[in-house]
């Protein structure tokens, strides 16, 4: 059956209890608008006949590029003032479709009777829940949940270097590395000023060799299937890209019984009442220790998008690598400029390698974030061609990560 795809990418903001204290944070101008426009990335999940519903119109160069790569869909734009975005979507717009949201919110379940309970979904997405689960399974790498400033100070003191995380933070947001007393004091001052309930997760800052994620789909009947693993590239605590694992890395995970752990996690997530896609963030440390459950994301994710694109690529004898570009764009520039710059190396389906622009319809000067898929077995070579082409067009790369 055809799917209707839509959703809010900052779902954690809506899952988060309003009475929780927040960590100190620096907000970039325009960051909320950029996240709001990320829903067009859901096009990468679409099959022919699916309906994509976004809050902004998709730029023609992106839509044309996706179509050339074989990704076609119906597209509707819903303009409305309410937040989250799902409040503006009426049930008749998804009638006759299976609703496949980016994440399940209270507003999403008004659109379908076949989605999991939003309260359960919020619970299993909490880092507190996943940490408690990992502790119950006696897994390495668990942290300490703290509920007071005194507990926070004591927990941080247990590690040579610590990361303090909001239970509903995502991709480095609402997470702080504490390596000095000054950072800890700044956190404590912020918590004191708010006079709200404290719930934070303190984890050791590990010496990581490889960040990766497992992706699983739980069916309505509680059974599940493994979708695959993606190796992640992070800059600090931020996700910058994903790629398929090497055969050697996959074999290592089998040797360390990683998939047995993921099966146990899937069973517990299903018993909690959730069904749908979920991912497990994991780490392989430089000393060889496997941390199989760092946190759980019971929703769609960029890793799952990369995996889905890789499945498309593999059918053509290629591999797909998701990569993020942070661009500085001159006045008058935008996503059309980016697509024109990459026209000679655009992926157009089939066995020939190329780059596919996945989002950026709202990109304007001074710049912003654009995701691209590199369809190639030599992503570093293709990525350099992307960087050269963008630079030749007068745009500056503020940041790019190697996703391979």
Tell me the number of helical segments per DSSP (H or I, 4 or more residues long): 12
Poorly predicted parts: 400-404
Shape: globular
Major sheet summary line: 9 strands, antiparallel
- Helix-strand topology string: EHHEHEEHHEHEEHEEEEHHEEHEHEEHE
Would you write up a description of this structure?
By secondary structure, the chain is an alpha+beta fold. The chain folds into 4 domains: 3-115, no CATH class; 142-204, Dna Ligase, domain 1, CATH 3.30.1490; 207-302, ATP-grasp fold, B domain (D-amino Acid Aminotransferase, Chain A, domain 1, 2-Layer Sandwich); 316-400, Alpha-Beta Plaits (2-Layer Sandwich). Helix content is 29%, strand content 28%. It is built from 12 helices and 17 strands. It has helices at 11-15, 31-36, 60-68, 118-125, 127-136, 149-157, 181-194, 247-255, 258-271, 302-314, 335-341, 379-392, and strands at residues 3-6, 51-54, 74-77, 98-101, 144-146, 162-170, 173-178, 200-204, 208-218, 224-235, 238-243, 276-285, 290-297, 320-328, 354-357, 367-375, 396-400. The strands form 3 sheets. Strands 9, 10, 11, 12, 13, 14, 15, 16 and 17 form a 9-stranded antiparallel beta sheet that branches. The protein has a 4-stranded parallel beta sheet with strand order 3-2-1-4, with no helix packed on it. It has a 4-stranded antiparallel beta sheet with strand order 5-8-6-7. A hairpin with a 2-residue loop joins strand 6 and strand 7 (173-178). Helix 3 runs parallel beside helix 11 (335-341). The two termini are 34 Å apart. The model is unreliable at 400-404 (pLDDT under 50).
